[in-house]
Design goal:
The protein is of the alpha/beta class. It contains eleven helices and nine strands. Helix 2 (35-47) links the parallel strand 2 and strand 3 (50-55). The chain binds pantoate.
Length: 282
Amino acid sequence: MIVCRTILEVSRLINKSNRLRQTLGLVPTMGSLHPGHLSLISKALQHNDIVWVTIFVNPTQFNNKEDFNSYPKNLEHDLHLIKKISNKINVFQPSETEIYNGNPFLKKYDFNGLDLELEGRFRVDHYNGVATIVSRLLSLFEPSNAYFGEKDYQQTQIINRLIDLEKIDVNMIICPTVREKNGLALSSRNKLLSIKNKSKSSIIYESLVFLQKSFNKNRNKLNIEKIKLKINSVNDFEIEYLEIVNNKSLQIELEFSDNESYRAFICVNVNGIRLIDNILLN
Ligand code: PAF
C-alpha cells in the first residue's frame, strides 16, 4: 500500500498510470473510516485498475470550529482497515498546508439553489467548502470514477452540479447507505454518541421508512408534524428538519406530481451531534 502525503508524489504516480491507460477510481473521505466507506472502496476496487482513497478533514466545509476540532480522527486504524481490503490501494493523506498552503480558502459556486436547501440552511458555505476540495481532488487525480455515499445525497447532487459547471470528465457513482443493525445510517460522527443515544437513534430510520410507506399509501395525507413531535419527545433528540422534496431540485413542492420522484430528508440533533439521513420515496 502506498501512502502519499504530497501532491508531487501523487502527480508522479498518476502520470505513470495514465501512460498505461488504466482506469482510476477515487474515494474521497475525511477518514475515521467505517463499513460505509469500506463499501465504497470495495466497489472502486471491483470497477477500476487503480484505486486511490483520500483522507483529509477539510477545514473549509466546517462552519463551526468546535465541530471541526471534535471530528473523529484515527489514521493508523484507517490505514489498517484499507490494507485489510487490499494492499494495492493507494492513499493520499495530505496536511492542511499541502492543500491550502497555509491559507484555507473556499471558492463560491452557483449551485442553482441546491446549496440553500436542507443542510445548506444550517451550514452556511458548507457546500462551497465541499466543492472546493472535491474539485481540487478531481483535477489532481483525473479519475475515471469517483465514489460517494447516498447518505449524503444532497452532497452528491452538489458534486453533480460541480462536475457540470467545471466540465469534469468523471463518472460519479452513488453507493447505497450502509446501516447499523437498528437502521442508524453509518457515519463517522456516530462514534460521538453515547451507547444509549445510539440505540435510541433507530427512530430516525424508522421514521423515514414510515414516511415512505405512508407516501405510497396516500401522499396527500402525510402527517409530518406528528413524526417530528414523536422524535422531539425523545430525551436529547431535537429535529432540525424533516422534509419531503423533489429528488432533483431538492425543493419543496406545493403538490406532488406523478411524474416526479421525491425524497425525504431528516436531520436530528442528538445532544449536539447532527445525524442526517434520507430515503427515496417513489
Ligand atoms: O463526504 C465527505 O466525507 C466529505 O464531504 C468529502 C466528500 C470527502 C469532502 O471533504
